[in-house]
Design brief:
The structure is a single chain. The longest helix has 36 residues. The protein is elongated, with a radius of gyration of 32 Å. The protein is 77% helix and 0% strand. It folds into two domains: 318 residues, no CATH class; 239 residues, Phosphate transport system protein phou homolog 2, domain 2 (Methane Monooxygenase Hydroxylase, Chain G, domain 1, Up-down Bundle). With 591 residues, the protein is mostly helical.
Length: 591
């Protein structure tokens, strides 16, 4: 069975499986290990095409996959995090970044006659050591970062063992005339492009298909540089299938990203394939007939992507026009999909996108609560409709973010990302409750209007003071969350304590007015509801600020954190007294 076709078929299949599994394992571990760096790189994106190019190059060099980078870009554009214009530079950079893998694999071409120093870089020398270090880090350490590093080493070791197995299995084909005649067919450039494109489209990785080509060429010696060049060109086209598949179900701009990626490689291949035909016909350089090896394939792969990028980099506007022509604007405006499941494969980026979406939710909840306070004594049907619509929007935010975070939690998150997910789940719950309180306040305002309830001058002044304090705590909470501002977060708790004090004092004043016949029972019920809702809003603000403070300390023990803040912070009492002085209730009329 093993020698039916003149070579070890099972060995080839096993080697290919190990190679693909190792590459996938290493890529996922690299993404996880470099999560924070990926977020930082993406955060530097601007409309500057060169910065986008460097970002794409850097991200792809880190995660070893242009396909993964392009899928992320599709997700970013679909989510509105990135514009189509920004994505073009990133895609160009990704095409060059993916050549790093071929250079790493070319280490397998270091021969036995190389010097001692070079022998140290030969995979057969250091791969077993990497595998040993990797398994120790993965199995015997608790740090998620160290475990991810261990997975990187294990993935690389598996990849290289697979590469060696593939090379060994086809080595017998070196002298097989039938096999060599098949490879000779690919010396025809068009067939070579098709072969490279089809193979890469099937395995959805140009890095993997280039590795297979390196193994085949180095083991058999039957692949010439002239035959390898068009195959490499085709591989760059075939890798676009991943982005095309990823764009299904996405919005039009995301589909345009896939078109840009495909256009870039098709145009580049057309240009260089034409040059190759001309050079072969006119100059027929002997180098095209030289047997390809690891290094020559790496050089060819790199040169192709560098030259195509150099040609098309000034033509980014043309690529954008082609994409807009292929995917025209819709007659009816599309609904933007904020959180894209394509990003779940890169948890740190997906989580960053959740934060961006939660900031919108926070702004909406805060605006709603402030608007509801304004309806007290100033109710209108228009304002009521706007508040009801906003509350529905906040509920939608909570559903979308909550479901997305649950899906994200099922992925292999490190400790830091797990803490951030838990924080966000708590925060969106508190934001949704703040929005609910805005509706409760609105209903109280509606009751005041419908029943023509009149508050005393003293009560009106007290409500105004409490409302101002709640407005400030909302502003502090929003600033603390959106800017990750610990100073603002630290001010929330003393203000919340001051609001509790205000509520208690207002309740006592209400009882006094009730006892003296200056307030009706009905008015008292409405006032009590208002006080309760406003005070509970401050509680939710305190919860959010507490999450921010505790996350900065890498813990989620909110109760203990607040207790420590009150007892250990020497400035807490000072801030508390300052807020009591700032929000002093007006003198109560006693006669």
């Amino acid at each position: 069975m093993a020698d039916v076709l003149g070579f070890d078929l099972l060995g080839l299949i096993g080697g290919l499986c190990l190679f693909l599994f190792g590459m996938n394992l290493m890529g996922e571990a690299l993404e996880k290990r470099a999560g924070d760096q990926l977020t930082a790189l993406i955060g530097r994106l601007t409309d500057n095409r060169f910065m986008g190019f460097l970002t794409g190059l850097g991200v792809t060099a880190i995660i070893q996959s242009s396909s993964a980078t392009t899928v992320m870009v599709v997700g970013f554009v679909n989510s509105g995090v990135m514009t189509l214009k920004q994505s073009i530079g990133v895609i160009m950079g990704a095409n060059i970044g993916t050549t790093v893998t071929a250079w790493i694999l070319s280490l397998g071409g270091i021969g036995e006659g190389a010097g001692v120093i070079l022998q140290l870089f030969k995979p057969s020398t250091f791969t077993p050591i990497l595998a040993l270090v990797g398994i120790i880090l993965y199995m015997f350490t608790k740090s998620s970062k160290k475990q991810a590093t261990g997975m990187i080493f294990l993935g690389f070791a598996t990849l290289m063992f697979g590469m060696d197995a593939m090379s060994a299995s086809v080595e017998a084909l070196r002298d097989n005339e039938a096999f060599c005649s098949i490879l000779t067919m690919f010396s025809e450039p068009i067939l070579g492009v098709l072969a490279g494109a089809i193979l890469t489209a099937i395995i959805q990785s140009s890095s993997a298909s280039v590795g297979i080509l390196q193994a085949l060429a180095s083991s058999t010696g039957a692949v010439t540089i002239g035959a390898a060049l068009p195959i490499i060109m085709g591989q760059n086209i075939g890798t676009c299938i991943t982005a095309v598949l990823s764009s299904f179900g996405a919005n039009r701009n995301a589909k345009r990203v896939a078109v840009v990626h495909l256009s870039f490689n098709v145009i580049g291949t057309t240009i260089l394939l034409t040059v190759l035909y001309i050079v072969r016909a006119t100059l027929a350089p002997p180098i095209l007939n030289v047997s390809a090896d690891y290094v020559s394939i790496s050089v060819s792969h790199t040169l192709f992507n560098v030259i195509v990028t150099a040609i098309l980099f000034p033509c980014a506007g043309l690529l954008e026009k082609i994409a807009r022509k292929v995917v025209p604007d819709a007659k009816i405006q599309e609904v933007e999909t904020e959180l894209d499941e394509r990003l779940l494969g890169t948890p740190s980026i997906a989580l960053e996108n959740c934060y961006n979406y939660t900031e919108k939710m926070a702004q909406c909840a805060v605006d709603s609560l402030k608007a509801s306070i304004d309806t007290i004594g100033n109710y209108s049907d228009t304002k009521a409709e706007e508040l009801m619509e906003a509350e529905g929007k906040v509920d939608h935010f909570e559903d979308v973010i909550g479901n997305y975070l649950v899906k994200l939690s099922s992925h292999n998150l490190d400790d830091s990302d797990s803490t951030r997910v838990a924080r966000l789940l708590k925060v969106i719950g508190d934001l949704e409750r703040i929005s609910d309180h805005s509706i409760n306040i609105l209903k109280s305002a509606e009751e005041i209007r419908d029943k023509d309830i009149k508050f005393s001058v003293s009560a009106q002044g007290e409500i105004k003071v409490l409302g101002d304090a709640v407005n400030e705590i909302l502003d502090l909470t929003l600033k603390a969350f959106t800017e990750d501002n610990l100073e603002a977060a630290a001010l929330v708790e003393p203000l919340e304590q001051a609001i509790d004090k205000l509520k208690s004092e207002m309740h006592l004043r209400h009882i006094y007015r009730l006892q003296n016949g200056r307030c009706s029972i009905e008015t008292g019920f409405v006032l009590s509801d208002l006080l309760t809702n406003l005070e509970r809003v401050s509680d939710h603000c305190s919860n959010i600020a507490g999450c921010i403070i505790e996350t900065s300390h890498n813990t989620m023990n909110l109760h203990e954190g607040m207790k420590a803040l009150k007892s250990e912070d020497p400035t807490f009492k000072e801030k508390y007294k300052a807020y009591l002085a700032k929000y002093t209730l007006p003198e109560m009329q006693r006669s």
